[in-house]
């Protein structure tokens, strides 16, 4: 499915399947806001300001999907909103899956794969993507991340690196 949006006179086409299986305006807005902030457009640009206002409103909703929270945390980290970033990361930490000395996130209702001898399961791309966004949110802070945050980030990085395929790539294109 493809979405067509007008942004400041520019048409933007996004594939909804790249939204971690979450098909809503908040996720799409977060993707676009992240892209604009990485461009970098200044926070004072009207499109960025309006997008961040929408995301701030959405971040206050309790029923946000874990994938959406990961995107929101990274968007607020890029925007320098440490209060929203921290609140979302605290919420995400409660939903983290801790296993074998690593940390990651998975979609609600997604059953963990059984560990089979001589076979290492690789997570679906949505899990890799959302975990990577959480890692980016942890590492994108002003001032630099504290030592305990870096220690937690290393547990996330450990899980992400375990998801590499034999050629060094990942299932995700994000």
From TrEMBL:
Domain of life of the source: Eukaryota
Annotated ranges, domain Alpha-macroglobulin-like TED: 16-174
InterPro entries from the UniProt entry: A2M/Complement_sys, Alpha-macroglobulin_TED, Terpenoid_cyclase/PrenylTrfase
GO cellular component term, pick one: extracellular space
Pfam families membership: TED_complement
Protein name, UniProt field: PZP protein
